[in-house]
Design goal:
alpha+beta; 6-stranded mixed sheet; two-stranded antiparallel ribbon; globular
Length: 364
């Protein structure tokens, strides 16, 4: 499989969309800032990453093809089918096969972390939501590590996960954060369900879905309650000299980092701070802070394990068939509140928590 391969998702509301899928965890605005670093090595690594990402985005836009929706001809098993490859610092995918399902750990820590992260993602969706892999039909989970030279990103290319090693200064190995692994695989879940268009508010919802489920995967693997979770996306990814704690904060959007090289976290927490921009596909990694914060508010209001009620409501909304591919924040607020009523009843704690959360972020 070459990096140019794409996968279009299943029909949305009866229409087959030919949407290319290429979603990175580090947004282009952050890498653009890093590319202007006075430290030559940092600037070069960021610039190479930007150029590689731009080339992949363009290739997918040009070569996006129609694909058949997955079918579940036979019941899917409860075990994942994981394969991890070593790209050997090249950009041709998937690379050399180094660990398959059921095989013992290898000496390469990146391979083992990717394998474990794929399993954690599979388990959360199976145990919490009854979903067999990201397509709901037992799709094999593939990942490639050691992609490119000092590649400062991780991405879902429509068929598999890809991890860079980072440059060691601004970012470290992207397999260290299980929520990043879950984030990227969750793009696949969105691809196979609501197929949210990767632009503007629907694109920000797409990113937010991945942050929500990425955070839930980390919380599930650590057996944390909502009040025990850090609600950070990508904690541990920032290099040793960077002033920050993560890529994003769902608890306090806009506070994840404030660094001379990377700038200040631009995410808003409410609609009062909504950013209108032509960059980053209309600010998909920026404005996602608003629905992210709404989920945090709902989950902490309900308490307990966040995947059990708040996560279930988000999953019901994403997979329920009513969420249009061009949905707005207001659409998701309305549908998620309705999903809470459908599952838990009107006027209950869940319904009230959703109303309060969306009202707090300006989408009541």
């Amino acid at each position: 499989m070459d990096a140019s391969h794409t996968f279009a998702s299943e029909p949305s509301r009866g229409r087959t969309r030919r949407q290319p899928v290429f979603c990175t965890v580090v947004p282009p605005h952050l890498l653009d800032r890093a590319a202007r670093s006075e430290v030559a090595r940092r600037a070069e690594a960021a610039l190479r990453t930007l150029e590689q990402d731009a080339a992949l985005r363009t290739r997918r836009r040009i070569t996006a093809v129609r694909a058949v929706a997955p079918t579940a001809a036979a019941p899917a098993g409860d075990d994942p089918r994981r394969t991890v490859y070593d790209a050997q610092h090249r950009t041709r995918l998937p690379g050399r096969k180094v660990r398959a399902e059921g095989q013992d750990p290898v000496k390469d820590a990146s391979v083992n972390r990717a394998y474990t992260g794929l399993g954690a993602t599979y388990e959360l969706f199976l145990k919490a939501f009854g979903r067999h892999s990201i397509d709901g039909a037992g799709l094999a989970l593939d990942a490639s590590v050691h992609y490119g030279q000092d590649y400062n990103n991780a991405f879902w290319d429509g068929t598999q996960m890809v991890f860079g090693d980072g440059d060691g200064e601004l970012f470290v190995d992207f397999t260290v954060a299980v929520d990043v692994i879950g984030h990227e695989l969750a793009h696949g879940v969105t691809q196979y369900t609501a197929n949210l268009e990767y632009h503007g508010q629907s694109g920000a919802l797409n990113e937010s879905m991945s942050d929500v489920f990425g955070s839930l995967i980390k919380q599930y693997s650590l057996d944390q309650t909502a009040d025990q979770a850090d609600w950070l996306i990508g904690a541990g990814l920032l290099g040793p000299g960077v002033s920050g704690v993560a890529l994003r904060s769902m608890k306090a959007p806009g506070t994840a980092y404030d660094d001379d090289e990377l700038g200040k976290d631009p995410q808003p927490a409410t609609m009062d701070g909504y950013v209108r921009t032509s960059g980053d596909n209309g600010g998909v990694h920026i404005n996602s802070g608003i629905p992210n914060h709404a989920f945090y508010l709902a989950a902490t209001e309900l308490g307990g394990k966040a995947w059990e009620r708040a996560g279930q409501i988000w999953y019901d909304t994403l997979t329920g068939g009513e969420l249009a591919s061009d949905a707005t924040f207001q659409d998701f607020a309305r549908l998620s509140t309705a999903a809470a009523v459908t599952r838990y009843g009107e006027g209950g704690a869940e319904h009230q928590a959703l109303q309060k959360a969306w009202s707090t972020v300006g989408l009541g």
